[in-house]
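[Automated response] Your request has been received and processed.

Submitted sequence:
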Amino acid sequence: MRNPNGYGNISKLSGKRRKPFRVRVTTGWELDEDKGKLKQLYKPIGYFKTRPEAMLALAEYNKNPHAIEISTITFAEVFQKWSAQKFNDKTSKSTLNGYNAAYNYSVELYDMKFVEIKKPHMQSVIDQCERGHGTLKKIKVLFNQLFKYALETDIVTKDYSKFVDIGKNESESTRRPFTAEEIKVLFENVDRMDFIDTVLILIYTGLRIGELLLIETANVDIVNRTMRGGLKTEAGKNRVIPINKKILPFIEKRQKEGNKYLIVNHENAQMKYWNYKDEKWSKIMEQLELEHLPHDCRHTFATLMDNAGANKVSIKRIMGHASSDITDKVYTHKDIEELKKAVDLI
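Generated structure:
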């Protein structure tokens, strides 16, 4: 039976393919100047294993032609569409900069399908942000605005941004470094409880949790005692992280497990921030009777390095802080040796 005009079509592609049935719809027409005839322009909807699956997909598409885009549109694309509607030539520079800054802190959400973004994903951005309460508030406002737009355009049916918690605005920092005695307790229990090694790795590298969870084993060089990774700023991305001798055995042991990522979940797949924080970090703190937040590890690293008299530029470079003292991101052999020398002071 022939489909009505404009309905779309299904075709079976040649060759050995896992999904040979292509579904596509007409998006317009253009003149073929060589033949002097109009030519259809197509947009592929998807590829399927069987013709019945393809027919079902085409029927679903025709019920709601916008559903395909809605199901695949990313956080970054929603931000672009919302921005085009929100801003104009009368928008103040400070307003524009504020929203763009909040967006820049949300880099881990860029490629996620918007319909899959829930409270834990946004909370991860908030929890890992090192800025003050004012910045956290701007990030949450951005999330609120994007979900409002998504609701209005039928991309989502529920606003999860309202559940994001940015905490109270406390002028005094709540970050507290681990004491020497607490670090000793961690070392003493590292073989008795899973994932205590990751707390020590965080303390002795200055990495954020999100950065550590993205380190791939291929980017770990045990012989030269370095890793590559990092997020957030240009200075922080893809930086060299020297491995302190105290944590080298932990990292080497995890690398030998042969997984893609250095830190993995029970399925040997990439571990997500909220899984680590809720399932690992919280249990470790409870069992060892410690009261610390994950970011205290990074604060501890900075404190230890400063107390040991480490070179200020080296500290900034290891932690991924932007600095006028760092003119480029090219690491020479001498640079790397200096970083290892600095980190071995603690």
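Summary generated for your ticket: The chain has 14 helices and six strands. Residues 190 and 196 are 5 Å apart (CA to CA).
If you did not submit this request, please reply to this message.
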